[in-house]
Amino acid sequence: MTNGTTVNTAPAHAGAVSAPAAPKTVFAAIDIGASSGRVMLGRVSPSTGVSLETIHRFPNGVIELDGGLRWDFDALFAEVLKGLAAAASVARGNGERVVSIGIDTWAVDYGLVNDAGELTSVPFSYRDERSRAAVERVHAVISPEKLYAVTGLQYLQFNTLYQLAAEPNVDGVQALLIPDLIAFLLTGERRTEATNASTTGLFDAVAGEWAAEFLDALSLPRDIFPPLIQPGETVGTLLPSILEQTGLPADTRVVAVGSHDTASAVAAVPASQEDFAYISSGTWSLVGVELPHPVLTEASRTANFTNERGVDGTIRYLRNVGGLWLLSECQRAWAAEGYTQALTALLESAAALPAGGPQINADDPSFTAPDNMPDRIRAAVRNTGAVLADRPAAVVRCIMDSLAAGYARTLADAERLTGRSTGVVHIVGGGSQNRLLCQLTAEAAGKRVVAGPVEATALGNVLVQARAAGVVTGGLAELRALAGAGTELVRYEPALLRDPV
């Protein structure tokens, strides 16, 4: 099924990057997704690119608490501190110095912090259903058309504005998005990083500021969010208590990066041409193109595309598509039943099945919450009038076919809505390792697929820090060249582009 070929990239733009700073400089990246997190050390060389070392991995997930699905944030922050302490120790042992920390996580969720700097409750997860009831109340005072014309944000029932509308009381508190909340606990400084602010539904896509008219319409305080900060700017230095717990140098800075993990991932897409599309493939899949300006048309709204900020003021024009959450939830369900076949073997069995099998709408909201995913997928197939075999390989092939088809449809829509054609699709993140998914995407889209790097999010995080520290200079083209330098990229050709035998 796969025909991927490996290509070693070279630092094509090395001449456009400044000379390195002190060789002992290293950067810490806190990179947390919806199911796991890690703390990494990044070492940046303008001549050879970026090397990453994973220092500490830890699980993340929702818990049922006080009648809702929430994040175990105390445990999450304790793991962050453990990872930073380990990073400081490793750096010292190597004669290195951690000069800054960057934080990226998933979007939309937040913690409410009072004037004393205390969390008033455990942060809710976007997978909780509480915001569903608030959607109608929000749309009663701000129409979906008006929301999109200002924010350019795709409709998702868990967007931050619907979550805030579901809060019983926001007097005397501020909402800190998850990466901003971690930065606050590290530094005592309250800021909202712009790429993540653009996912709230309360951010003006053109002005690049909070949409005050929407805050007023929803009776939210004008200062419900802290002031905005851009990627590359300094949030602050570490609090004394954090220094004591981690052993980091006293002047270690927390630097804003693309704190929405997709913003960091897109900043590290190793594209050497402008007409590229990207798929950040992980728990969710983010599929789109990079633009200089938002697309705020009614056609864009009805197609449910979003305009989110990227590094250096770019626009990530994309749509959320279902992701590998479907596969991981199936694996979890099968493991509970005693079936523990390795993922590699599962994918090989799925690849051996014939094409043209049943598909589902992988981004249907019914798949958002955790449950028995194999049963739900089979039920969704039955609703289409087809039948899906009960064996795991058939379910996995259905997921892969459905994701690839969803990617191809979304890419075609992005080209139609922007008037741009794309010549290559870059898949980054965990999904770039899935050879079956990459090949099926190439076939479904009819485009060359370049897979890698897997660690695009951490690479983007570290590169923005390195530029802020003066270790490298240049724009996104230079950062992307460094992200690709030394990285093994795998290319997949659709049948229509392959040379005839």
Automatic annotation (TrEMBL):
EC number(s) on file: 2.7.1.5
The Carbohydrate kinase FGGY N-terminal domain, residue ranges: 28-266
GO molecular function: rhamnulokinase activity
Matches recorded under Pfam families: FGGY_C, FGGY_N
Top EC group: transferase
Keywords per UniProt: ATP-binding, Disulfide bond, Kinase, Nucleotide-binding, Rhamnose metabolism, Transferase
InterPro entries associated with the record: ATPase_NBD, FGGY_C, FGGY_N, Rhamnulokinase
SUPFAM superfamilies in the record: Actin-like ATPase domain
Residue ranges constituting the Carbohydrate kinase FGGY C-terminal domain according to the UniProt record: 277-469
Family (UniProt): Belongs to the FGGY kinase family.
Keyword Disulfide bond tagged: yes
Positions of transmembrane segments: none
Protein name: Rhamnulokinase
Organism listed in the record: Paenarthrobacter histidinolovorans
